[in-house]
């Protein structure tokens, strides 16, 4: 074999290796992930969602530190994901940060989304869609309020908070629109205008609820401060 032919073979081999590296790099870039040391708006969004759902108690500062990693692991364990503290594609989907226009399998299986969707379905079945989202928003507004428990589960299971927990409606099949409404509420949509209470005046038996300042009426529900 001549020297020129050997040099050609070596050059082609190097070029092939470079192409492999570039392809691998591109694939890695497409599969976005966030882990300890990352910073920016996406990290801030991750922290906000985890804090709203009761997984994160630190500062929302856009810095992926150890406390954020611990919160991510807690969220991953709760939702059947690999608890490695890295927010990759699967965790992003479970957080509702990928393909939010449809309900993905990972999102639908999220215990957080399902819990919220069950309450929405039981409390607002037959209501207009923005009324269903508003019911979900009320639950999340309560999580953010100092006068209520600071987790979705705590709010939902607070004694006497929701009639569906007493009459068994919470165990009825969950509608597809309720799952979408839950995801929209978790993504920050709030048709209620910041309400922390709602009630149906046709069925309300507690006179105290009428004393709450009205914010908005959606469908059969009055949403109040």
List the helices and strands and how they pair.
Layout: H1 3-30, H2 41-52, H3 66-78, H4 89-94, H5 105-109, H6 111-124, H7 129-144, H8 152-156, H9 164-167, H10 176-186, E1 197-199, E2 214-218, E3 221-224
Antiparallel strand pairs: 1-3, 2-3
Note the main attributes of this structure.
225 residues, mainly alpha, three-stranded antiparallel beta sheet, 10 helices, 3 strands, 5% strand
Molecular structure report:
The structure is a single chain. The protein is mainly alpha-helical. The protein has 10 helices and 3 strands. It has a 3-stranded antiparallel sheet with strand order 1-3-2, covered by helices on one side. The radius of gyration is 24 Å and the shape is elongated.
Mean pLDDT: 83
- Major sheet strand order: 1-3-2
Strand content: 5-15%
> In angstroms, what separates the terminal alpha carbons?
86 Å
| SSE string, helices as H and strands as E | HHHHHHHHHHEEE
Task: Please work out how many helical segments DSSP would assign.
Answer: 10
Structural class: mainly alpha
What's the number of extended β-strand segments?
3
Stretches where pLDDT is under 50 for at least 5 consecutive residues are 20-30, 99-109
Taking the sheet with the most strands, its summary is: 3 strands, antiparallel
Rg over alpha carbons: 24 Å
Write down the overall geometry: elongated
- In helices, the fraction of residues equals 40-55%
